[in-house]
Amino acid sequence: MIGKKVFVFALCFVFMSVVLLATLPGSELQDRERIRENIHTLRLLRMTQALDLTEEQTTKIFPVMNRIEKEKIGIQWQIGLKMAELKSMLREKTAKEEEILSIVGSIKDLRQLLRSKDDELESFMEGNLTVIQKAKYLVFSVEFSRGLGETLERARMIRDRALKKEKRNF
Amino acid sequence: MNCKKIRKWLSDSIDKELGEKRQYILRSHLEKCGLCRAYQRSLEEIQEHIEGFEKPGLSPEYWRDFHFRLKTKLISFEPEKRTFRSIAWQWKWAGVVASVIVVIAIGLSLFFSLPRKAAEIYVFSFEDSFEKVYQEIGNNPELANLFNLVILASIEENLGLSPSEINANLYDDPLFWESLTEEEIALLESEIKKEMKS
Question: Contact, B64 vs B47, CB < 8 A?
Answer without folding.
Answer: no
